[in-house]
């Protein structure tokens, strides 16, 4: 009995020490809309990246992947590469990050560039695949899920505006592929909304009319008056639209 007490005491002190240590570890939360995009420096298939400083006043999209050579993620990167010229025309820089090493990224990229997907010719990948083997980027962006697998990134998308603020966030499960067209549409909606101080309604597409913020005292009669902006119309008193012809683009 005398031998058991010191052992029990030692184990109790050990548990208390571990608990105290865990409480000292700072909690990492995902940056929220409007937050500054966390900065990082990392190796990539395009060389050393200082993010977001290297990208100036451009829009930026950061895609996270749980691992290289996963089937769903491979399809997404090929689709993203197929639309990289369209994103470039929007002034958007694309970046991909996962917790695999640079060497594995290089191998994966070379393989993807040989794949004929959905009957299309292979495409070159002109955006960087970022090495986050130490998980520092994943931690900064809140992309590790401690209750599932805390060694792999969740499948997140962060759209970051020219002021280096988080403008939109998407998260997807591992078994559902991301819709690259929807991500591109969101960038276009954000750009139109910011440039014109307007809103985009459900299912908005480029070229569609937009909505204007609710204006107190504006009703159907005011909208129909000769003195009112002819490009603004109402579907009801609390839903005002503006014709796309009058937008800055």
Molecular structure report:
The protein has about 250 residues and is α+β, with helices and mostly antiparallel strands. About 30% of the residues lie in helices and about 20% in strands. The chain has helices at about 5-25, 70-80, 85-90, 100-110, 135-140, 180-195, 220-225, and strands at about 40, 50, 60-65, 90-100, 130, 155-160, 165-170, 210, 230-235, 240. The longest helix has 21 residues, at about 5-25. The protein is globular and about 75 Å long. The N and C termini lie far apart (about 80 Å). The relative contact order is 0.13.
Work out the number of β strands: 10
Largest beta sheet, briefly? 5 strands, mixed
Give the SSE order as H and E letters. HEEEHHEHEHEEHEHEE
**CATH C-level label of the largest domain:** Alpha Beta
- CATH homologous superfamily caption of the largest domain: Glutaredoxin
CATH architecture of the largest domain: 3-Layer(aba) Sandwich
What is the total number of structural domains?
2
Distance between the termini: 82 Å
Short description:
With 249 residues, this protein is of the alpha+beta class. It has helices spanning 4-24, 71-82, 84-89, 102-112, 136-140, 180-196, 220-224; strands spanning 40-42, 49-51, 59-65, 92-98, 129-131, 155-160, 166-172, 210-212, 232-236, 239-242.
Q: Which descriptors would you attach to this protein?
A:
single chain, 5-stranded mixed beta sheet, 31% helix, alpha+beta, Glutaredoxin
Fold topology:
Elements: H1 4-24, E1 40-42, E2 49-51, E3 59-65, H2 71-82, H3 84-89, E4 92-98, H4 102-112, E5 129-131, H5 136-140, E6 155-160, E7 166-172, H6 180-196, E8 210-212, H7 220-224, E9 232-236, E10 239-242
Parallel strand pairs: 3-4, 4-5
Antiparallel strand pairs: 1-2, 3-6, 6-7, 8-10, 9-10
């Amino acid at each position: 009995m005398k031998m058991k007490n010191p052992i029990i005491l030692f184990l109790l002190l050990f548990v208390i020490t571990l608990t105290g240590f865990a409480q000292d570890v700072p909690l990492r939360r995902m940056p929220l809309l409007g937050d500054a995009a966390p900065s990082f420096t990392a190796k990539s298939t395009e060389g050393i990246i200082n993010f977001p400083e290297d990208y100036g006043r451009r829009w930026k999209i950061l895609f996270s992947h749980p691992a290289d050579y996963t089937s769903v993620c491979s399809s997404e990167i090929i689709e993203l590469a197929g639309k990289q010229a369209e994103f470039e025309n929007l002034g958007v820089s694309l970046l991909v990050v996962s917790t695999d090493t640079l060497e594995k990224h290089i191998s994966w990229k070379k393989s993807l560039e040989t794949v004929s997907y959905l009957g299309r010719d292979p495409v070159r990948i002109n955006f960087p695949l970022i090495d986050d083997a130490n998980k520092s980027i994943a931690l900064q962006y809140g992309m590790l899920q401690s209750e599932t697998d805390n060694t792999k990134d969740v499948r997140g998308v962060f759209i970051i505006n020219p002021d280096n603020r988080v403008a939109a966030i998407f998260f997807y499960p591992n078994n559902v592929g991301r819709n690259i067209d929807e991500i591109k549409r969101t960038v276009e909606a954000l750009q139109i909304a910011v440039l014109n101080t307007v809103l985009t309604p459900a299912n908005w597409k480029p070229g569609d009319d937009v909505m204007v913020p609710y204006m107190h005292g504006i009703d159907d009669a005011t909208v129909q008056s000769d003195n009112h902006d002819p490009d603004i119309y109402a579907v009801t008193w609390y839903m005002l639209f503006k014709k796309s012809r009058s937008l800055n683009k």
